[in-house]
Amino acid sequence: MARLLIVDDEEGYCSVLKVVFEKEGHIVDTASNGVEALEHIRGSVCDLIISDVKMPDMGGIALLKKARETAPDIRVVMMTAFASLEVAREAFVLGADDFIQKPFQNDELKLIVKRTLEKQAIINENRAFRRAQKSDGHIDNIIGESESIRKLCEMIRTISGEDSTVLVTGESGTGKELAARAIHSLSGRNDKPFIPINCGAIPEHLLEAELFGFLKGSFTGAISDREGLFEAAGDGTVFLDEIGDMPLAMQVKVLRVLQDNMVRPVGSSSEIPVNARIIAATNTDINEKIEDGSFRRDLYYRISVMPLTVPPLRERTEDIPILVEHFIAKFCAKSKKNVTISDDALASLKTRSWVGNVRELEHVIERAVVLTKDGGTIETQDCLVDPEISTSPATEYTLPDDGLHLPSFLNELEKSMAQEALSRFNGNQTNAAKLLQIPVHAFRHLMSKHGLKSKGEFKATHPNQ
């Protein structure tokens, strides 16, 4: 529900539109010219003005200018029977949200109003989110005191003041979106929207519509026009998460956006200017994707003007106690408990490989807090993914006399263990992840990393099968 003000010197239009929008659940006031409308704005709350352009005493363009000075957050939709390119351009320059020509269908205007209010709702949500984060600062949400985290935060502060595109790389669960939000919150765009989208989770035809918008009737299910996220972001930031999984056809179109700052909605023959900053992120090796032809080299150069790498948790184990303390406090507040952790449990957490990184650690601590009684202490067994599964190694290895390349050895061991786990359960990823005591999403990352398949390519190797 919103509070609307209909401004028109034709009483019939005011009366009809008042009935139309009251049926939509809005509170509707009317005024016959710009002077009356300004008096109303100064004395009452108003979310959106629907104003005619040509009126006595004060017309719509003058009202738009005065309204913007009086209440900058009011949305304004202009309507006129004398539409022209010059009038429309002037209205948009002064801050009009949309423009409709008389005579029009009521459903057309209702759609415009709905879209305009939704856009304002997004802006309001982002403002509320920014107010909440200003007390902490998004940079403070990147927790740790290690040298790698200190350098990461320094880099974020350095590049946040620029408008260049940023490519955030790092394994799944390291906090790439936190880094992107920190860049946005420290930038000059922090009072504008931050809009994240997972490029790998949306089918290609829907991804194009999400990013660029679409026109009514452009495809099945497109029952109305819709602006894309690049346009909705305005002067804010668009965060393209998992850009390494973006289809090649979409990569071409995103490259054009970065080159020309223009988008073409699906079904449209014209382009719309956009000004959002682009921050991209990926947990894959883009160079490998470039070599195998699944990622465009020219797009990589465009998005990696400012590269930023978030370190994995295993490379900053000195931060684990700080993170554990933070997560315990977070989930104790949520559960209204007072829980501590034993030294042995904390020491055991520092020895884990943490394939799922900070996200995995957070989930482990959440589970431990939930299962620990108020006033109790989290012990080592409480920090296992499955307490019934032993953590002792199954095999001892003897170091060869001539040594070995440890990273390659561990990489092959990791691949072998993941493949063996899949084999034991005939490709069932959930059971395989449970056997390895890691989250399913972390196991899927291992499969992707090592090129493993889950169905039809594994023969049982477990002696009991």
Query: CATH topology of the largest domain, what is it called?
Result: Rossmann fold
- Oligomeric state as shown: single chain
Number of domains: 3
Low-confidence stretches: 386-395, 456-465
- CATH homologous superfamily descriptor of the largest domain: P-loop containing nucleotide triphosphate hydrolases
The radius of gyration computed from the alpha-carbon positions, rounded to a whole number of angstroms, is 28 Å
Main sheet properties: 5 strands, parallel
The percent range for strand residues is 5-15%
The beta-strand count equals 16
CATH architecture of the largest domain: 3-Layer(aba) Sandwich
Describe the protein's architecture and organization:
The protein is α/β, with parallel strands linked by helices. It folds into three domains: 3-126, Rossmann fold (3-Layer(aba) Sandwich); 136-311, P-loop containing nucleotide triphosphate hydrolases (Rossmann fold), CATH 3.40.50; 314-383, Orthogonal Bundle (Helicase, Ruva Protein, domain 3). 46% of the residues lie in helices and 13% in strands. The chain has helices spanning 11-23, 34-43, 60-70, 85-93, 106-134, 147-160, 176-186, 204-212, 229-232, 248-260, 286-291, 297-303, 320-335, 343-350, 357-371, 406-424, 429-435, 440-450; strands spanning 3-7, 27-31, 48-52, 75-80, 98-101, 166-169, 194-198, 213-214, 226-227, 237-241, 262-263, 272-273, 277-282, 306-309, 340-341, 377-378. Helix 3 (60-70) links the parallel strand 3 (48-52) and strand 4. The longest helix is centred in the first third of the chain and has 29 residues, at 106-134. Residues 386-395 and 456-465 have low confidence and may be disordered.
